[in-house]
Specification:
Order of helices and strands: EHEEEEHEHHEEEE
Bound molecules: flavin mononucleotide
Strand content: 35-45%
Mean pLDDT: 96
CATH superfamily: Electron Transport, Fmn-binding Protein, Chain A
Radius of gyration: 16 Å
Length: 173
């Protein structure tokens, strides 16, 4: 990918700040509905990264009503992108409007790129190419701290995705 170079995952630290404060974009493309390939991205600030099944993975929590959720659900691979502070407004926009009725890339001034079939974002500082390993849905009965059910008044329990981080691309300039 022009303008990017692959870095080792060990150079990618400070994950609490990156996810919780800087936020990330989750991007996926798939053929849904008409058979036409649809591309979308959404902001996320809940999730984590670690080791599972001996692999470097990310844990993503996406509500079922997100348009992006349908695309992640239908894709083998997706990407996670992190940005410099200059893109805060773009990330805010991608976290408040839906790709179901808006071209968020155009609205946020972001440029999708194709990384061997996986959509990534040209303006990102880091693009993580990820392969989906596991998908499930949180269940009411699984909550050990009932107060957390306050987050699910609409019974819209998050879909959980465990994705393997296959490559990390860092933008050069
Ligand atoms: C800072 C921020 C963090 C967010 N984190 C998440 C998240 O982790 N999971 C989630 O399902 N939605 C999260 N959202 C909400 C989605 O980004 C938002 O509903 C978005 O409009 C969904 O877009 P889509 O319908 O095009 O997929 C977040 C929104 C913001 C602004």
């Amino acid at each position: 990918m022009q303008g990017f170079r692959i870095i080792t995952p060990s150079a990618f630290d400070g994950i609490f700040e990156r996810i919780g404060k800087d936020w990330m974009l989750l991007t996926a493309a798939a053929e849904i509905e008409t058979g036409e390939r649809i591309l979308n991205t959404m902001t996320a600030s809940w999730g984590g990264m670690g080791i599972l099944w001996g692999k470097r993975v990310a844990f993503l929590f996406v509500r079922p009503q997100r348009y992006t959720d349908r695309l992640i659900g239908a894709s083998e691979r997706m990407s996670i992108s992190f940005f410099d502070e200059d893109y805060r407004a773009a990330l805010r926009l991608c976290g408040t409007v839906s790709g179901a009725d808006t071209d968020k890339f155009a609205a946020a001034g972001l440029t999708p790129l194709d990384a061997a079939g996986t959509p990534v974002i040209a303006e990102a500082r880091y693009n993580l190419i990820c392969r989906k390993l596991y998908a499930d849905t949180l269940r009411r009965e699984g909550f050990c701290l009932p107060a957390l059910l306050e987050n699910y008044k609409a019974e819209d329990y998050h879909h959980v995705y465990v994705v393997e981080i296959e490559e990390i691309w860092q933008r050069d300039s």
